[in-house]
Amino acid sequence: MLGRLAERKDFTGSFWTDLMIEEVRLADSVRDMLDAGYNVFVETGTHPLLCRSLREIIEIYGAGNETVIETLKRDENDWERFLETVARLSLVGKQLDRGVLTKETGKQLDSVIKKIEAENQRLEIVQGETLEQSICAVLDTILGPGSGKKASGNRRTGFFDMGIDSVTALR
Questions:
Q1: CA separation for the pair 129, 144 (Å, rounded)
Q2: Average pLDDT, whole number, for the chain?
Q3: How far is CA 110 from the centre of its chain?
Q4: Could you tell me the pTM of the whole model?
Q5: How far apart are CA 120 and CA 143, in angstroms?
Q6: Which of 24, 31, 86, 131 sees the fewest Cβ atoms within 10 Å?
């Protein structure tokens, strides 16, 4: 709404009223934060409604090293989503005070971090490979050896031809 990075003094009673009726200037605010050096954006709502808009704005104005992290999602376990959010913050280099975590929570968090790292490693494009080679490697991992090569040999091969019923199967 402000079109700039908000300060603590901005959050008055009238701010919240105005928020309901005034135009929200999200792009201007995000650009201001990017200019100020912010590179991690966490949407803390009950469902990630703004993440897509944030990513689009960052794609236009960002430097390429920005991260958008979702917190909660409807119909998903809040605790698991919270742990995933904290894990993703840790993986982008944000320091965590592990002293405030119980031993069990620390173990859960470590497990989530390992899971995300494995997913990221599986989907990384290896330097020196073409995009086609990287996609073939991912398909081999998901569908078994030779699947990617089969797809690359025929430019008309679609996901269904490779045994994938929908794009969401690649999540």
A1: 19
A2: 80
A3: 18
A4: 0.64
A5: 17
A6: 131
Query: From the centroid of its chain, how far is CA 155?
Result: 30
Average pLDDT of span 135-148: 68
User: Which residues on adjacent β-strands are paired with residue 43?
Assistant: 70
SS3 (DSSP) at 2: coil
Around Cβ 129, how many Cβ atoms within 10 Å? 13
CB 146 within 8 A of CB 140: yes
Angular region, 57: left φ>0, alpha ψ -120 to 50, beta rest: alpha
- 37 token code pair: 């050096």
Backbone angles phi, psi at 38, to 5 degrees: -70, 140
Whole-angstrom distance, CA of residue 160 vs CA of residue 154: 13
Instruction: Supply the pLDDT for residue 113.
Output: 93
- Per the DSSP assignment, residues forming a β-bridge with 98 are none
